[in-house]
């Protein structure tokens, strides 16, 4: 095999240029990147075997119409997907083997923090032994709020402060903090959002979307009163999407919407172009920014992750809410978070107990020209909750598309 650089001059405007050829059986449009300082010159590196090859250049000009979606096609796609999801149950999400970690509500926050880190997970259902049932979920978002709250009352966080807080006490304090109290000033208990094994996948997906949670515990009880519940699985949009992709992969031709590029839908949150306004600010940070600024941005912008970029806005890494558990390593949470950079925080997770295949999924990318089906297949992989949309060649960040974005579109 040899690498053959191809440069192509296109004087008619536009930024989306592609090459295909006999070297890839004409099966894939390879995006060409714009050469810096030469707005009409595009390049790509293609792996070709020895011999003669034909190639073809395709370009989308500024005057060329964007692929259109008819409302009929969208509704037909949504109907077929809804019918499929309604015909399958949460039981089908259960793996043949596996484990689910649950935490006792009387566990100290510090111990819970370390357990999640050691298990390589970002959340766990909570068990109340006195009530004999699951009462909630402890997530990475809780730890972010804990560190921010305790950090507001002093320069550093002490281990003693974490040791004195049980999960139950934190949840009660959180209710007061969010003013979720009744007329007598008592905290209003939040009911656990869960699913039964016989619930259909559409209802499970809607529960996740409407409640804004990452997972829904799948709980089974053989008693009518719900006693002696069994925790079977943690259902996520990723698992549901995997079922969808497995079914529609070989019949996607009957759903033309799945073959559309994501920029034409449009899907996700995009970086505003010059002169454009955006109702939702797009969050990005440099690796030298403080960890406290990242945590504040995650909470205030209500996002699950922040792209970390260089001075040219090219993607370097991504900081997610789940990365907070890496602070348990070496008790890094006791440090002043204003003095720790995002780069240092990400380095803490490099040698964590998280399986390599999960760590490698942390910074997944796609192109604006990728089809909806291709994006769905990437998001269906374990551990992937969002894709960073980048410009071909430069890796300049253009947007983010998440599991939530995909399901909000598919379910209307």
UniProtKB/TrEMBL annotation:
Record-linked InterPro entries: AMPK1_CBM (IPR032640), AMPK_gamma/SDS23_families (IPR050511), CBS_dom (IPR000644), CBS_dom_sf (IPR046342), Ig-like_fold (IPR013783), Ig_E-set (IPR014756)
A Pfam family reported for this protein in Swiss-Prot or TrEMBL: AMPK1_CBM
Keywords of this entry: CBS domain, Repeat
Listed under GO cellular component are: chloroplast
Q: Which parts of the sequence belong to the CBS domain?
A: 93-155, 278-337, 358-412
Highest taxon of the lineage: Eukaryota
Q: What is this protein called?
A: CBS domain-containing protein
Tell me which species this is from.
Gossypium barbadense (Sea Island cotton)
The major lineage groups are: Eukaryota, Viridiplantae, Streptophyta, Embryophyta, Tracheophyta
């Amino acid at each position: 095999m040899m690498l053959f650089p191809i440069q192509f001059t296109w004087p008619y405007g536009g930024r989306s240029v592609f090459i295909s050829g006999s070297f890839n059986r004409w099966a894939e449009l390879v995006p060409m990147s714009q050469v810096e300082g030469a707005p009409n010159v595009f390049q790509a590196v293609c792996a070709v075997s020895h011999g003669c090859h034909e190639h073809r250049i395709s370009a989308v000009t500024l005057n060329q119409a964007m692929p259109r979606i008819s409302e009929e096609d969208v509704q037909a796609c949504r109907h077929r997907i809804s019918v499929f999801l309604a015909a399958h149950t949460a039981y089908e999400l259960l793996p043949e083997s596996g484990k689910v970690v649950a935490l006792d509500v009387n566990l100290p926050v510090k111990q819970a923090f370390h357990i999640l880190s050691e298990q390589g997970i970002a959340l766990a259902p909570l068990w109340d032994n006195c009530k004999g049932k699951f009462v909630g979920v402890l997530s990475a978002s809780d730890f972010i709020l804990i560190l921010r709250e305790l950090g507001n009352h002093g320069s550093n966080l002490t281990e003693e402060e974490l040791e004195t807080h049980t999960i139950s006490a934190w949840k009660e304090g959180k209710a007061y903090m969010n003013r979720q109290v009744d007329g007598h000033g008592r905290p209003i208990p939040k009911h656990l959002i869960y699913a039964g094994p016989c619930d259909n996948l559409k209802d499970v997906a809607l529960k996740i979307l409407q409640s804004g949670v990452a997972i829904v515990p799948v709980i089974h009880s053989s008693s009518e009163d719900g006693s002696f519940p069994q925790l079977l699985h943690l259902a996520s949009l990723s698992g549901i999407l995997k079922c969808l992709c497995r079914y529609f992969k070989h019949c996607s031709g009957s759903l033309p919407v799945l073959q559309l590029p994501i920029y034409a839908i449009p899907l996700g949150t995009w970086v505003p172009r010059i002169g454009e306004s955006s109702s939702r600010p797009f969050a990005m940070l440099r690796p030298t920014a403080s960890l406290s600024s990242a945590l504040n941005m995650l909470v205030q912008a209500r996002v699950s992750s922040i792209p970390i970029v260089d001075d040219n806005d090219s993607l370097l890494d991504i900081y997610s809410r789940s990365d907070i558990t890496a602070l348990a390593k070496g008790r890094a949470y006791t440090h002043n978070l204003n003095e720790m950079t995002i780069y240092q925080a990400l380095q803490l997770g490099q040698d964590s107990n998280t399986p390599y295949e999960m760590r490698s999924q942390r910074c997944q990318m796609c192109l604006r020209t990728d089809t909806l089906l291709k994006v769905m297949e990437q998001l269906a992989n374990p551990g992937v909750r969002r894709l960073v949309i980048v410009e071909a060649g430069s890796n300049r960040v253009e947007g983010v598309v998440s599991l939530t974005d995909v399901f909000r579109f598919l379910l209307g």
